[in-house]
Amino acid sequence: MAGERFRVMLRMEIKPGLEPEFERVWREVGDSVTSHPANLGQWLSRSIDEDGIYYIVSDWVDEPLFREFETSDRHLEHRTKLHPYRSGGSMTTMHVVAHLPAGTGAAR
Q: ABM domain: from which residue to which, for each copy (predicted)?
């Protein structure tokens, strides 16, 4: 449904030994995503349990605006720069249905 925050989670399998280079390039090209007006931010996380596995989470204003970005030249260029590091992966999309902000006593 339009108007709901939309979240994308990518699971990326990175070729052995290329992890540091992948992280560097991801940081360098990330603004092609985060500078898009509909993007609300993105995060890169490395799995503790599986070698070479990364998760990229990005939040979007809504699904239609993400889908517009997904088919853009800007996204194709971004994917092209990261593709040499990948050996596989998957994408999961979801609508955020609730958010519980951290309390004032949360560790910082």
A: 6-94
Class in CATH terms, 6-94: alpha beta
Amino acid at 69: F
- C-beta neighbour count of 25 within 10 angstroms: 15
- Which amino acid would we find at residue 65? L
Model confidence pLDDT, tens digit, residues 45-92: 999 999 999 999 999 999 999 999 999 998 998 899 999 999 999 999
Cα(84)–Cα(79) distance, integer angstroms: 9
Beta carbons of 13 and 93 less than 8 angstroms apart: no
Q: DSSP string of 9-45? A: EEEEEEPTT-HHHHHHHHHHHTHHHHTSTTEEEEEEE
SS3 84: helix
Asked if 81 contacts 29 with a C-beta cutoff of 8 angstroms, the reply is yes
Segments making up each domain of the chain, as ranges? 6-94
